[in-house]
Amino acid sequence: MPQADCTVLYSQKNSSLCLFSGFIKGFYTIRYDVLWTKLRKETDISCEVVSILEYWYYNQRNVVKWAGTHSEMYGLDSLLKPKGLRYNSKKSEFLVFKAGKKVYANVPHLYLGGVALNRVERFKYLGHWVSDNLSDNEDLERERKALAVRCKMLARSIFFFVQDIKEELNKKNQDDSDALENVLTYVGEFGRYQKLLFLGMMPFGIFFAFVYFVQMFITATPQRHWCKVPEIEHLDVEIRRNLTAPGTGDDWERCLMYNVNWTHVLINNSVSPNTPTMPCKDGWEFEFKDIPYPTVVSERGWVCENAGNIPLTQTIFFAGSFVGGIFFGWAADYFGRVPAMIGANAMAIVGGIASIYTTGLWDFAFARFIVGTSYDSCFMTLYILVLEYVGPRHRTWVANMSIALYFGCGGLVLPWVALWVGDWRKLLWVTSLPMLVVAFVPFTVPESARWLASRGRINDAVKVLNRFEKVNGTKIPEDVMDEFIVSASQTRQTNESIWDLFRSGPLRKVMILMVLVYMACALIFDGLVRMSEGLGLDFFITFTLTSATEIPSVTLVAYILDKYGRRNLTCGPMAMSGILILIAVFVPKGVPQVTLAIMARFFINMAYNVAVQWSAELLPTPVRASGTSLIHVSGYIAILVSPFVVYSERVWRSLPLLILGITAIFACTIGVMLPETNGRPMPQTIEEGEKTVNKYSLCGKVEDIDENQEENEKEKALIT
């Protein structure tokens, strides 16, 4: 029911009084253009007063505020429907305020529809009594009592609902900023403690490289080997090889021997080239020139028909990484990041030392499986933990430079450590025992504050942040700390799961394409690493040069990623890598092929690192963790195949390069269909993820969205 209450000044005989007219009960549906006319013609109200009311009505403007937004300005005339004037003069009344002790007896009567309105001394307006003498004692007393009661109730209940208020406020702001990042702005985004943690990543980044690459050095195959013949072991090496292995010069049979009576051979000191051959029956002899130390392969004869043992044990290693990734991922969520990191490094130590005491294929494979369970988790747990405590402005370069410097340096150092040690067992001792420094982690590395709070260990989370304050020499405001505690401990529930992602057509397409791109990056990266042994140049020099590309390539990514975008820096370098690998198919072994392999490794390093970040930015928040885990596991599956791709060299010398080159070109062509995420907010829901795919894919379909319609729907929902 509309109301038309007005306050005007009425002047008579140089005296002023305030006239208060209440039409709340009198008017139901009002057409004001008719009202002004009737007030002038049918009442004793002066035309001046009516004109003032009419001017006020048509020129006033109002604004409705709601939750930080406000409506457009509007007038009262927009609220009423022109259905004519309807009123009840018997329910209308008026009151005249008395100024001081003066009594105004000559106040003219107000008429409505020819009926004189009743003049009153008190008027109840919005629950309050308004008196003509301006007295409000009754209201004051009533409000005093009510206020006292409310204050007592508020004092008793404030402790119980203050936390709920903070949570509600945090819910409203949780999309705009992260509470921990707010804390970091006060504690220091890259203070002394964060710098110490960055340096503390160094040994574990190097161990990460050792765990990944050391099996290549303990199972390296000396290329100069031939069948072993016990009857001629007393002869010189060159004579034994020439008598045993068919062929001339450096091109001799490594898996066949002459089928002759060796007593006659010793008498004649020669073998006819037309003599029948047979497979080696007493093992092999190895010349330690290209690989100048005994390896598992040379000790156990894993060459020729046994050469498949090498890719088999490497595949079992990565099967362990698949199991370990799942297990230690669960352990990190259930027991904490630090315990998971300690457990992963402990598995690497146990498996590495156990490998030393193996004697056959399957016990060695089992030991490498144990080592494989630590791969990735032995470093990535700390990697994620440190990034959590680094401010957004420093996160990109810390994420990339920690891998470039520490993982890259580990790859550079390992070949020369292997040469210096000169024995595969000693190499495992040297690369396994230093991991015992993980015992100092609980005393130096803080647990994730966000994880502690989410597990209800609020006091422990606050202690960790207080330690940052102490080391960095900073102070976190109390309200900022409260906001972090509420945000970190708040359970965010959603009905969206990984199955919703696959039920969404656009996101299902993105997920499949991203898995293929990531698998291609993993396969090409690992394949180029393992082919270092067979590119025709010294294995240790080739491995060092290809590993050296890690530092400049990842450093370059850190500086240009935000400028050129994720799609360009994944597909472009991958295409370049594929072209270089395909060119290497047609060039001879040695310096030309090694040069092309080094250049290809440089570009695939870039593509691989960008793909890791790109995959996380493509997926909506409710499925980001599970989705990226699935993509990461797909990389393990690709690496399982990698040793057999390299082993296909036995079929045709250039077949591994051809497979890797075609894979790179194929992945590049499907990668360009993925949406660009550079400079755009990450999607928070499945719906937002679909819009991202539709708007920012090269082959996407841009949807026209009526923004005004959406706003109108929101306003209607608020009004309802």
Q: Name the CATH superfamily classification of the domain at 495-544 and 559-701.
A: MFS general substrate transporter like domains
* SS summary, helix count: 28
Mean pLDDT value = 76
Q: How many strands in all?
A: 16
Top-tier CATH class of the domain at 495-544 and 559-701: Mainly Alpha
CATH topology of the domain at 495-544 and 559-701: Growth Hormone, Chain: A
Relative strand content = 5-15%
- Gap between N and C termini: 18 Å
Gross morphology is: elongated
Structural class assignment? alpha+beta
Query: What fraction, in percent, of the residue positions are helical?
Result: 55-70%
Strand order of the largest sheet: 1-2-5-8
Low-pLDDT ranges: 1-29, 76-86, 169-177, 700-720
Main sheet overview: 4 strands, mixed
Label the CATH architecture of the domain at 495-544 and 559-701: Up-down Bundle
**Radius of gyration over alpha carbons?**
41 Å
Overview of the molecule:
Strand 3 and strand 4 form a beta hairpin. The N terminus and C terminus are likely disordered. Among the domains are: 130 residues, no CATH class; 62 residues, no CATH class; 193 residues, MFS general substrate transporter like domains (Growth Hormone, Chain: A). It is built from 28 helices and 16 strands. Helix content is 61%, strand content 7%. It has a four-stranded mixed beta sheet with strand order 1-2-5-8. Strands 3-4 form a two-stranded antiparallel ribbon. It has 720 residues and is an alpha+beta fold. The longest helix has 37 residues. The chain is elongated, with a radius of gyration of 41 Å.
